[in-house]
Amino acid sequence: MPRNEESVATKLQRIAEKARSDPKCRFTSLFHLMNRELLWECFWQLKDARASGIDRVTKEQYAEHLMENLDALIGRLHRMAYVPQPVRRVYIPKPGSDRQRPLGIPVLEDKLVQAGLSKILEAICEEDFVEDSCGFRPGRSCDDALRVLGRTIERQGTQYVVEADIKAFCDNVDQDQLMGFLGHRVADKRVLRYIRRF
Questions:
Q1: Which secondary-structure segment (H or E) carries 103?
Q2: 40-99 pLDDT, tens per residue?
Q3: DSSP secondary structure code for residue 134 in this structure
Q4: 76 contact partners, CB below 8 Å, separation of at least 6
Q5: In the predicted structure, residue 1 carries a pLDDT above the cut 70
Q6: Local structure of residue 93 (DSSP, 8 states)
Q7: DSSP 8-state assignment for residue 186
Q8: Rounded (10°) CA dihedral 174, 176, 181, 182
Q9: Which of 2, 139, 148, 193 has the greatest CB tally within 10 Å of its CB?
Q10: pTM of the model
Q11: Do the beta carbons of residue 81 and residue 68 sit within 8 Å?
Q12: For residues 146, 111, 119 and 144, what is the CA-based torsion angle, rounded to 10 degrees?
C-alpha cells in the first residue's frame, strides 16, 4: 500500500500525544484520517472466514477488487452518503446455560468503517482511561483484569468484591448521554454523525 508523506499511524500517535498532554482538548479535525491507508490496514486486520452480513459479501470477495472497493467506500464516506446496513441476527449458545445469545453480524464495509472509527477514537480515549480499566481495550484481557483485582485485594486489604453484570447493557445504554461523553473530546461533526448512524 503506497503511503502519504506521513502515515496514518504517525498521525494517530500525534493525536494520542496531544490527548495525553491536554486532557481538555476537543479534536475538531479527525475525519480526514478515514482514508485509503487506514481502511486498507483495517481490511487486512479483519479475521478471515468470518460470517458475512446481510449482503453475504465475504472478505475474499471484497479483496478481489480491494482498491476499487475502498475508493468507492471512501467516496461515499466523504460525501456523507455512506449508510450503515442492518446487522444480520444469529443466535449462538450461551456458555453455562441452555439459552442462546443474540449476535449481530454487520456487513464487511460496516466492519471496516467501525474499525477505522475505532482506531481514531482509541488514539484519544485510551489516554483518558484509568490504568486498571481492562474491558474491551486493546491489548488487555480478562486475565489482566483478574491480575489487577488480585493485586488490589493483596495490597489494599479489600474486604468486599462485588461482581455485577448489567443485562443487555449495550441495548439499553442512553445513546444521547454516550454521544455527550464523546463530545467532551471529539468535536468533528462528521465523526460524530457516523457514530450516531451506527
A1: strand 100-105
A2: 999 999 999 888 999 999 999 999 999 999 999 999 999 999 999 999 999 999 888 888
A3: -
A4: 82
A5: no
A6: E
A7: B
A8: 120
A9: 148
A10: 0.86
A11: no
A12: 10
